[in-house]
Amino acid sequence: MKKYLQSVKKHAKLLLVLGLLKKAALVAVVLLLNSSCGGSGEKNQSKNTESKIDYTSVKRPSFNPDSAYAFVDAQVAFGPRVPGSEAHRLCGKYLIETLSQWADTVYVQDFTAVLYNDTRVPGRNIVASFSPEKSIRILLGAHWDSRMFADHDADEANHRKPILGANDGASGVGVLMEIARLLKTEKPNVGIDIILFDVEDQGTPEFDTQNRKEDTWCLGAQYWAKNKHIPFYQAKYGILLDMVGYTEPLFTMEEVSMYYAPNVMKKVWDIAGELGHGAIFSKKKVGGVIDDHLYVSREGGIPMIDIVQYSDEGSFFKHWHTVNDNMDVIDKRTLQVVGDVVLTTIFSE
Fold it and tell me: Which pTM was predicted?
C-alpha cells in the first residue's frame, strides 16, 4: 500500500445507483408504515433511541493478544514474504493449513500478477469462510505479502532490500488469525469471510522513475474483485486491517472509506469510542489511501473500510517500508484494541 491521496476522483456508478435504489425503497417502506399505522416522527424517533445498541454489553468471544502476537511472529519468522520467494511459499502453506483447522471452507485462489516493471510473479489469495449457509455476510481482510523494497529507509543502501513487514502486513493477518480461531467455536449471527490478499505491497518503488503507472499496488485485491472466490459473491460490508499493531496506534477516517462506506466507518468508530478507544480511533478526516479496500469497493461492489495506521508526518508509521519494520514495533495492546473493536462489530450484527 500505498500512499495517501488528496481526493477520491473516480466514482463508483454502480454503487451509487444501488444506493439510490435502496434509499428509494427505504423511503417507500417508511411512508407506507406511517400511513397505515398512523406512526409519527416523534414515535419513530423514540423507538430508534430505545433500540440503540449498547456496544459495551455485546456478547463476544475474548480476544487473546498473546495469541495474535504469536501469529504475527510466526509470519515474520519465515522472513520477507516476497511473492515468488521460498519464504512466501512456506508462509502461504502455513496460513492455509492453520486456517483449515478452524474455517468451514478455505478457498485458495492462485493467480499470476504482473508487477510495475512487467515482471510476473505467482500470487495466492486465501479465503477462510465461516457459516457458509448464512446469506448475510461480512468480509474481513488484510494482506499477507511483505514489500520487496525498503525504499523509505533512511539508509539508501537498504532501498533494494526486502522488509520483514511485521506491522505492514503481518499485524493485520495476525489479528484475523486470532479472530478465525475464535470463530471455530463462537459464531455471530452473520456469515464471516476472512480474505488474505496477496501481492498488495509490490507497487512502483520510489527510486524507479521510469515505471510510473497507475494501479501497481493491491494486485491480489484487483484480481479478486474481478474474479471472486465464489461467483456473484456479495457481502454486506467489509473491514480491512493494515498496519494495526504499532506501538503508537492512530487510526483516522480516511477518504476512500468515507466515500464508499461512510456508515460502516462511523459505526466502527462509534463502537471503538464506546469501548474506550476514542483516542486511538480518531474521527479526524484525512486523505484517501490506496489500499485493498479501494478495489473491493470500486470494482468488487462491496463497501469496505480501512483501519490503517496514520501519521501526520505523511508516512504511516516511523518504520514504514524500512528494514526496521520488525517485531520490535508490534504492541500486543494495539492488537487487542483492534481485535476487540472488530469482534464487537461483527457480533453486534
Answer: 0.87
